[in-house]
Amino acid sequence: MTELPRSIDAIDTPAAVVDVDRMHANLQRAAEYCRAHGLAWRPHAKTHKTPALAAAQVRAGAVGVTVATPREAEAMATAVDDLLLAYPPIGRPKLQRLMALPEHVRLTVGLDSAEALAGLAEAARAAGRRVGVLVEVDAGMGRVGVQSSDDALALVRAAAETDGVEYRGIMFYPGHVRMRVEAQDAGIRALSERVGRTLEALHAAGVAPGVVSGGSTPTFWRSHEIEGLTEVRPGTNIFNDRTTAEIGACAWDECAYSVLATVVSTSVPGQVVVDAGAKALSKEEIRADVTGYGALLDRPDVIVKSVSEEHGIIDLSGTDWRPRIGERVRIVPNHVCVSVNLHERLYGVRGEEVVDAWEIAGRGR
Fold this sequence. Notes:
Strand content: 15-25%
Order of helices and strands: EHEHEHEHEHEHEHEEHEEHEEEEHEE
Number of strands: 17
Distance between the termini: 22 Å
Largest sheet: 9 strands, mixed
Radius of gyration: 22 Å
Shape: globular
Number of helices: 10
Helix content: 25-40%
């Protein structure tokens, strides 16, 4: 890596920038909430993909981190010794990479099929490694997860009886509960009831889970309302983003991540163009009652109305602000996780001063 720039003005754009004070405040809030409600905190590293930040989460109180890919697991294993792969590892290449993780790493894998269980157990036995298993249940999202309490019980029993793996509990992801926090009552209630039915069946069969892992950033502050939950896995809330703020899961001044961009054109009336397009912000539409692909950190009512690969078009129709060519702006993207994955490094800033920089070691597939 080249020499660390001293000032934000010296950073070439587009660039991923993190307000370190806001980030650490976000970590402290999350840790305090989990302590207050007796929940283990296992944040998802897919948001930052950066070992140093995973280590910061553990120092703040996390029990370990969650990952989604072997690449993330390899990167996080350099800084954290307790990992949950919340994605079924199918195929020999992925399994071999997992088994090659350092021996001191306590590895747990989430899965939802007998096929995934058999492949994991075979790889673990061949490597002489014991791997934990969480059986994933579909809590309403309809993406992955066993579909009934009976299905959960069958796979739990198989995991408990299979050599090479250790049944540790169940997991779920409430990704379907994305509405504003104050409108989540029915969704949280239905989620709790669905998880509760599965837990009741497992308890009755004598295979009660030691771990019940769930949660997301949109539902994070209501995690204590979910029956039986023991562990939460928010990802986004280390940084937050425009979606998180728009649904009320954070305040705007809790957004720690932004993309630094430069105004490159003012030729077309009513707009300016910056050098942060889809390859810096992503082209993910927002899951809230607003439009655009991002908003300015210091002017959240000013939005990026469209993006192409290298161009971001900022709408000036509702503001008197008229930036000049060369002026810098900081854009909070709709979805931070996708944006981070597009960059090679994160710059940690305090005001205008650059205080740190981290290579995004887990980026890519």
